[in-house]
Design brief:
- The structure is a single chain.
- Helix 1 runs parallel beside helix 12, helix 5 packs across helix 15 and helix 5 crosses helix 17.
- This protein has a single domain, classed as Amino acid/polyamine transporter I (Up-down Bundle), CATH 1.20.1740.
- By secondary structure, it is mostly helical.
- The longest helix has 35 residues.
- The N terminus is likely disordered.
- The chain starts with 18 loop residues before the first helix and ends in a 6-residue tail after the last helix.
């Protein structure tokens, strides 16, 4: 979409998602780094398959109803995330919360593009073999993140994201996902086959697929619920924004299920890549984020054609990161176009430059500047991650459930559900989702402890 200053910024008919393009774009926003970077280690911490089953339950009972609510609100409002609640017919009191769902993804993107840059760097290093010239992968990672090169790679990730978003909805985001999502699937299958055929991989598959319910706890349930929210991109304005580009003839119920299934399959295959590999090489599955950039390179270095499979793995991560980054950037771009009536190109450039500036403290907080490396108990990067993931996202989800459950008179028409399903959906949004999301907020913010 290319809008000239002074013209309406409402989504145009000729720049909306096709039915397939919308589902692929929404899946692209959900299959980000979370299920490959975060899901394996939280699953490892909370008992493997039992936690995975808990995650599935959370996805179905809470995740999908809230996902449907966000899409329906976005389509009814036909504006940016900042104005969707009011344009859909809600009270103006919800306007600040809509604006919050523009600010949140922008802040997330400031650190998300840093990790996306890491994946691009590691893909190049792996394919060229340079990653494996030094067996001390921990020191390699520390030296890399503590230098200036991550800023270069972050800039590259931002530039790629800006290029795609600058092309518009149908010509940019949709085409991008139509190419990369099938490519992502192919890479997932190749890496899964390689992982499950490694010596000793069966133990990892067993850990992932055989549930041990004794490991479950109230904390595990809240972690699973929080991850369901994060992995579906809920509470961050993406689905409100994408909903505005969905044709009114698109059935949102089946689309919501398709997005949830795509997210679930991605999580499943991610587990079948990570756990067989870690168990095969004696790596702890709950090693935390260092699992991806320290432990797994050690595993790739020890397997036949390790440079090739390591390169494929980091290309997979880069694709997952960029498809999500595109969705995150579209949220503030849509707002800037709507608020100041800028052209898409101008809005993308403004957002990209500001994004690079506000990301500087985070990218420099890995050892370059001591005052940013340690602020209390966390680095600047970790504080940004903590505030957005653990506080702002649950608040966004909570606002959506309260709005759709209690204030939105047009919910029935917008959701397009049959009477029976609508009653179940509304009951969930009124009485179940708000309570559980509030518990997640209290837990992730540190107020509620176990």
């Amino acid at each position: 979409m290319s809008l000239q200053p002074g013209k309406s910024s409402a989504p145009r008919k000729n720049d909306r998602f096709s039915s397939t393009g919308f589902i692929l774009a929404a899946i692209g926003s959900s299959v980000g780094l979370g299920n490959m970077w975060k899901f394996p280690y939280i699953t490892g911490e909370h008992g493997g398959a039992a936690f995975f089953l808990l995650f599935i339950i959370c996805l179905i009972i809470i995740g999908l109803p809230v996902l449907l609510a966000e899409l329906a609100i976005g389509r009814a409002g036909r504006g940016s995330a900042a104005t969707s609640y009011v344009k859909a017919g809600g009270p103006t009191a919800f306007a600040p919360f809509g604006l919050l769902q523009v600010i949140t993804p922008f802040i997330i993107l400031s650190i998300y593009t840093i990790i996306a840059g890491w994946t691009l760097h590691y893909a190049v290093q792996s394919f060229t073999g340079k990653l494996f010239t030094n067996a001390d992968f921990g020191s390699q990672f520390t030296a890399f993140t503590g230098g200036y090169m991550p800023l270069v790679w972050q800039t590259a990730a931002i530039a790629l994201t800006m290029f795609v978003v600058g092309k518009g909805i149908s010509g940019g985001i949709e085409k991008f996902n139509k190419v990369l999502i099938p490519g992502l699937v192919i890479l997932l299958i190749i890496l899964m086959i390689r992982a499950v055929t490694l010596p000793g991989a069966g133990e990892g598959v067993s850990f992932f697929l055989n549930p041990d319910f004794s490991k479950l706890s109230a904390e595990a349930a809240l972690v699973a619920l929080g991850h369901a929210f994060f992995s579906l991109s809920l509470g961050m304005g993406i689905l409100l924004t994408y909903g505005a580009y969905v044709d009114k003839r698109q059935s949102l119920g089946p689309a919501t299920v398709a997005i949830g299934v795509g997210d679930l399959i991605y999580a499943l295959i991610a587990g079948l890549i990570i756990f067989p590999t870690t168990f095969s090489f004696g790596i702890a599955p709950d090693a935390g984020p260092s699992l991806v950039f320290v432990a797994l390179p050690a595993a790739f270095s020890a397997m036949p054609l390790g440079s090739f499979f390591g390169g494929l793995f980091f290309i997979l991560l880069a694709i997952a990161a960029l498809t999500s980054a595109v969705s995150l950037l579209e949220v503030p771009v849509a707002y800037v176009m709507e608020r100041w009536r800028f052209s898409r190109t101008k809005a993308v450039i403004i957002c990209g430059v500001v994004l690079l500036i506000i990301g500087l403290p985070s990218v420099l907080s890995f050892g370059m500047i001591d005052s940013l490396t340690t602020i209390g108990s966390k680095s600047f990067f970790d504080w940004v991650d903590f505030i957005t993931s653990n506080i702002l996202l649950p608040i966004g989800g909570l606002v959506t459930t309260i709005f759709a459950g209690y204030y939105w008179k047009g919910a029935a028409d917008a959701a397009g559900l049959k009477a029976g399903w609508f009653k179940v959906w509304l009951f969930t949004l009124r009485y179940i989702a708000p309570v559980l999301v509030l518990l997640v907020l209290l837990h992730t913010s540190g107020i509620l402890k176990f």
